[in-house]
Amino acid sequence: MPVMEASAGEMSRRLGRGINIGNALDAPDAPGVRLAARHLELVRAAGFDTVRLPVKWSARAGAEAPYAIDGAFFGQVDRAVGLALERGLNVVLNVHHYDELHEDVGGQSARFLGLWRQVAERYADRPDRLYLELLNEPRPPMTAGDWNGLLAEALAVVRASNPRRMVIVGSAEMSDVGALPELVLPDSDDRLIVTAHYYHPFAFTHQGAAWTPGSDRWTGTTWGTDADRAAVRADLDAAAAWAREHDRPLFVGEFGAYERADLDSRARWTAFVRSELERHGIGWCYWEFGTDFGAFDQSRGAWREPLLRALLGG
Ligand code: BGC
Hints:
Order of helices and strands: HEHEHEHHEHEEHHEHEEEH
Low-confidence stretches: none
Mean pLDDT: 97
Bound molecules: beta-D-glucopyranose
Radius of gyration: 19 Å
Structural class: alpha/beta
Shape: globular
Strand content: 5-15%
């Protein structure tokens, strides 16, 4: 008897509660987290369902066709994926920090597709708990038009080896929730999950962030008034409405507040965003595990309890 395939909506619901292992395989230089089995054990034991594994493939592949991905690096990613799957976690594997692609779509798209051909073939036999996400935060100068065209091509490349695997796609404009209307997906593909990222209000979540010019002015911004809550609710209601209208499941693959914000405000914001997402039945992954947004404090070898409670508490 044929095994019934879970629908895209069901596959999206299964993502449940997750966490990004950021600044590990996506790190441009020295990783902030050297991913080890114990990290995945901690994540599983805490009660998360999913890990998102951001990967900077573009730093580990040839510049010319066939854009071969470094074998040792592929081995590291294999190991991370295997460790997570073996522990019963779902895995979202993406292409992260492909800066040259955002800067020069015309010059880099063949390479982007070449990377996806290799990655998709490599993991084609893994269980359906492995989800593939095409590109983290497509951003200008790449336009929505560029991205909508390229994502269809990348999807075709993935489908050649993974006809039924769930593929996750976000919109241009950094996949911000507000940019969902920019996204155009191939109608014929019913194995897609749309992703959006949530960092509003940005002056709160990115206060003092070194990579955000002018963000030092925002330090001391707190969060938690009624108006603050109403604004978050309105954003997430609009995102949920977009998903319903377009009949696509939605997954919030990143949300989090940087360490320079006060911990009480971070915990309040995190708990509120999470509860709003869950009210809408939207799965999520917190940004991130163990560095500058970290729910886990590597120096103490312990979770930051207020953040962990905000994410997984009753
Ligand atoms: C980036 C990180 C950044 C985070 C929040 C992620 O997509 O990869 O470098 O810390 O967003 O801005």
